[in-house]
Records
---
Amino acid sequence: AQKVTQAQTEISVVEKEDVTLDCVYETRDTTYYLFWYKQPPSGELVFLIRRNSFDEQNEISGRYSWNFQKSTSSFNFTITASQVVDSAVYFCALSEGLTGANSKLTFGKGITLSVRP
Amino acid sequence: NAGVMQNPRHLVRRRGQEARLRCSPMKGHSHVYWYRQLPEEGLKFMVYLQKENIIDESGMPKERFSAEFPKEGPSILRIQQVVRGDSAAYFCASSPPSLAGNIQYFGAGTRLSVL
């Protein structure tokens, strides 16, 4: 069975602070995919990143960076110099398997990030 | 380049009525997924469909819930005889034809309120 744990439930920072959102996952598959999604106050889900289990390279996209460590089953997300527009709920998710039949996403409970001006 | 379209955005039903939620996938996407988000919880998988075919319904409640994705038209999630516990946000996602780990693109959701 697959599981995603986001132990932090709410984080509040002041604008321009750096913030790291933690994600720990469990899976028995050797091939799997990890995702982060953002849910702003308007309610839609916005895709941010996908990584596969064979690629442990960290990734940076502007102010966003992701640290994937298989040894600790973690896929953490850092926002550098946070901005008010980063305020949202952030979800980490996992999908398993080699075939499309196993493509359902298992989500963590989400982390509510509030960035104060 | 329209994204995933869900309608209605908000739906109010009285207990015992039926709710029908619609989802039109992104152009070129033939896979549709439905998820439910209860208050204070993450999204829970309900069902995965391809055109005219249910691939995985392991997350669907055994009674009152059904889903379809016909050859023509949107995918429909149908909830019969709604109860208060069905109040939630229902999200649809779509992805391109079958590859593991496909990115799922989500619609804006339908917020169902059962009075």
---
Amino acid sequence: DVKVTQSSRYLVKRTGEKVFLECVQDMDHENMFWYRQDPGLGLRLIYFSYDVKMKEKGDIPEGYSVSREKKERFSLILESASTNQTSMYLCASSFWSYEAGGRNEQFFGPGTRLTVL
Amino acid sequence: QKEVEQDPGPLSVPEGAIVSLNCTYSNSAFQYFMWYRQYSRKGPELLMYTYSSGNKEDGRFTAQVDKSSKYISLFIRDSQPSDSATYLCAMSGGNFGNEKLTFGTGTRLTIIP
């Protein structure tokens, strides 16, 4: 069964703290994504990675960085947390294969609700 | 203007009703269209996947794409309380795994028993 796990369901941090959000997938997927989800704004892509040690900026990368040292793990880092980074953070993974019908379905984790005080 | 517009709702309908959820988009390069369902405190999961224009049916769910009008719909027949969730449309220009998806804001749906 497809599984994407995120290290915490709820997290409370203080302004200025360095925050690590971890995501692990057990499907051997090449591609991994970090989104944040806010009411009225939907899912917005922060960063994605299509291979180990590779990363690409999404639509809102400012204030974030990522790390992908192993294929199954993709970390989102908030270097200095701010209150406007209070949000739901969702990790996803995907792969592509002709045999699978060529679909770019993304599989999501349960999310981490981060509150920055 | 957002690339993808979706009515946020909330939408409440009685059990058994037909539900229509819609998205409009502006980027004519979009060719792959998806509907994700997200239950409360869970991540989104893929519900329907379609390519280009036309209809696709899966049980009580029908996805419809009209590329000429840049309009996609999801119909739910014989709606059930278990259909209560937020529905997100998503789309991309290609179908490779590293393609970015552009999401709508989601419509919160409640089916009243």
---
Amino acid sequence: DAGVIQSPRHEVTEMGQEVTLRCKPISGHNSLFWYRQTMMRGLELLIYFNNNVPIDDSGMPEDRFSAKMPNASFSTLKIQPSEPRDSAVYFCASSIGGAFTDTQYFGPGTRLTVL
Amino acid sequence: GQQVMQIPQYQHVQEGEDFTTYCNSSTTLSNIQWYKQRPGGHPVFLIQLVKSGEVKKQKRLTFQFGEAKKNSSLHITATQTTDVGTYFCAAPQGGSEKLVFGKGTKLTVNP
């Protein structure tokens, strides 16, 4: 299995631009998670999908952030407009089941820099 | 909000020395997971503890879950340079039981 795939691996953009991060979960996994990692705040859960349905988006910072999962093999996290404080590493993870007791498999992450 | 406290934040050891990181919660946990993140890498699942007082071993790594299920520890015996990285504990918390990660302990090993 290829594992969780994320693209792009690195993104540098200017403040105000739209940024779209992409994730392909492990085939057969029913849950998908978007995390953000910064030095100050650590690893934070942004949103969680189960069977393509958003279950918990309480970690999404503000309306500038949106996430979709149109099918079981693809999800996007969009930031519009981006701001310098959005600079972070964004991880996508997937798990087999819908419970947080299941092992989460993380993708390699997207390092986002907003200038 | 509820959180999982992890200490120490940093630990530097000489190769061959032991290392321990601790994770504490003010509330009882249903389970606790441990992850390792190598420099520049992504978190990788190590283990999950579920039972009160549970102890699990993976080679030189020993994981413990407290009797009250409010704390946990990861102990590495005789560290090697390959152990370098940040070790995170994570536990489901809050009404939605979503996974909350500790801030991690960054381990550096001097060869």
